[in-house]
Write a structure and sequence with these properties.
It contains 4 helices and 7 strands. With 173 residues, it is of the alpha+beta class. Strands 1, 2, 3, 4, 5, 6 and 7 form a 7-stranded mixed sheet that branches. β5 and β6 form a beta hairpin. It starts with a helix and ends in a 9-residue tail after the last helix.
Length: 173
């Protein structure tokens, strides 16, 4: 019996170590996607069209008032955000999940859009974005699907704080 107990204990230890390693890998991947999302947001905030374009998969779909299909169409649809007098958008991830396969991820969080109405008055809209990320062969993450929706009610203070506090580029591990 003692041999069987030792075997069972060893098997359980191996399973526990494997699960812990998978959790660590998933946490590392979540961190990488969170950083990719923050860098993506900062590319728009800093007016860096090239960095913005590099974050978008060639076959991406961005859903807004319509659907932009492909990187070039997305870049064209987002051109106003890069104009000096254009609208400004800020977003940050609150939730990041990565599939166990490690090649597909989801990020979700608040956004704030600031623009100027035709009469010159400021307009502010809050909402939630959802992005699907795909890990490329070289390890980079790119957005394949993106959509947002306006806030349904009052924006919680924790959400306002996340957006209104300055962000810096995410340091890789």
């Amino acid at each position: 019996m003692s041999r069987m107990i030792r075997f069972a204990s060893l098997a359980l230890a191996i399973i526990a170590m494997t699960a812990a390693a998978q959790d660590a890998d998933n946490e590392s991947l979540q961190h990488a996607v969170r950083c990719a999302e923050i860098d993506f947001a900062l590319s728009v905030e800093n007016g860096d069209r090239n960095a913005f374009a590099e974050s978008i998969h060639a076959d991406a779909r961005f859903v807004g008032d319509g659907v932009s299909r492909g990187r070039d169409a997305v870049i064209e649809a987002w051109a106003p955000f890069f104009a000096p007098d254009g609208p400004r958008i800020t977003w940050r991830p609150m939730i990041v999940e990565v599939l166990d396969s490690g090649d597909l991820a989801f990020s979700r969080g608040p956004f704030r859009l600031q623009a100027t109405a035709e009469d010159g008055s400021p307009v502010e809209q809050w909402g939630t974005f959802n992005s699907t990320w795909q890990r490329q062969a070289d390890g980079r993450w790119q957005v394949v699907f993106d959509a947002g929706s306006p806030a349904a009610g009052e924006v919680p203070e924790i959400v306002r704080k996340l957006i209104l506090e300055p962000a810096s580029a995410c340091a890789e591990q």
